[in-house]
Design a protein that fits this description.
Layout lengths: L28 H4 L29 E6 L14 H9 L5 E2 L4 E2 L5 E3 L10 H19 L3 E6 L5 H12 L3 E6 L27 E8 L4 H9 L3 E5 L8 H9 L4 E6 L21 H14 L2 E7 L9 H17 L2
Parallel strand pairs: 1-4, 1-5, 5-10, 6-7, 6-9, 7-8, 9-10
Antiparallel strand pairs: 2-3
Helix pairs in contact: 2-8, 3-4, 7-8
């Protein structure tokens, strides 16, 4: 069921009269009467549907940035609708997490308006995003940024911004069906298929779940000491791949999660599906280790291309993000 407001719903924010909340006279009209049963407002269109107090920036430990950018997709389209679909589905995620045994939303999660990038071309758009993401990092201080895509090309500017702010080489954990190590694709080096190639000068990249790869990308990975590939077929024989991935992953880490990492039976809503991908619990087991054994500075989730009438993949992504935030803030 949706996360409806209720007087006894812990961690769902507070109405007028709650200690620390603004006085009724200082709050906007809609806010002042939100708790009145005569005005049954729908849940806000923000991550988890949190109300204005629960999702305020002042109390937030995580900040969600939707970036509905799509310009270089090479097969199925629709990633522009990914961020909105994630936010909508998240309003139906149960806030109580049985693994953590608590309501994770009390950490505070602030959702920003969607960032609309220029349409002058992939190069200008990625330059604009890198500058914007750098400003975001400055403004949010130590809060944890979560970017929602959009196509995978948006990861490179964000990774470069995080590396620049960190002031040293970082690790990138790439959960993905594809290596994204092409020097350029279909006429642009800013393609979704080149996202990881564009960060090799500032980060060591560990790709997990890879099963769709070109000869060019294999050659790049073989020649580049900072590129490690964990192929999907290795992941079904034993769990040794988890150790190898972590051994290759420097600290701190940027996590980029392309949803086509998952098997299409779980994730059909993506533009470039590949059979034989990851499953739910093994993936969570690995990522829980990553958050426990490394410092994760930021993350993104990209390449959801919603299918009308098929809500399960959208919900999966929303639930994944919620679980990962729980691992980030145990």
């Amino acid at each position: 069921m949706p996360n409806r407001r209720a007087d006894d719903a812990k961690g769902r924010g507070a109405g007028a009269g709650t200690p620390g909340s603004p006085s009724p006279a200082d709050r906007p009209l809609a806010s002042r009467i939100t708790g009145d049963p005569a005005f049954p407002w729908e849940l806000p269109h923000v991550f988890l549907g949190l109300d204005e107090v629960a999702s305020s920036l002042d109390r937030a430990r995580a900040v969600v940035l939707p970036v509905p950018y799509e310009a270089t997709t090479s097969w199925g389209g629709g990633t522009r609708g990914g961020p909105r679909a994630i936010l909508e589905a998240s309003r139906y995620v149960e806030l109580w997490d049985q693994e953590a045994r608590r309501d994770l939303s009390v950490m505070g999660i602030h959702t920003l308006p969607a960032l609309e990038l220029t349409r002058e071309g992939p190069g200008p758009a990625m330059a604009e995003l890198e500058a914007a993401f750098g400003t975001l990092l400055e403004e949010i201080g130590g809060r944890f940024p979560v970017m929602l895509g959009g196509e995978h090309s948006i990861s490179a500017p964000a990774i470069r911004s995080v590396a620049a702010r960190h002031g040293a080489r970082i690790g990138v954990l790439q959960m993905d069906a594809h290596a994204d190590l092409r020097r350029s694709y279909e006429g642009t080096p800013h393609s979704h298929a080149s996202a990881m190639y564009r960060v090799l000068d500032v980060a060591d990249v560990v790709g997990v779940g890879i099963r769709g790869i070109s000869q060019e990308e294999v050659e790049v990975a073989d020649a580049e000491p900072g590129a490690t590939l964990i192929y999907a077929d290795e992941m079904w024989e034993s769990d040794e791949w988890m150790d190898r991935a972590l051994e290759s992953l420097p600290d701190p880490v940027y996590l980029t999660f392309d949803v086509d990492y998952f098997d299409p039976s779980l994730m059909p809503s993506t533009g470039t599906p590949e059979p034989g991908g990851g499953d739910w619990y093994r993936t969570l087991s690995f990522l829980k280790r990553v958050f426990r054994e490394r410092t994760v500075l930021a993350m993104d989730v990209v390449e959801l291309a919603p299918i009308p009438g098929l809500a399960a993949p959208d919900f999966l992504v929303a639930k994944l993000i919620y679980k990962l935030l729980g691992y980030r803030f145990p």
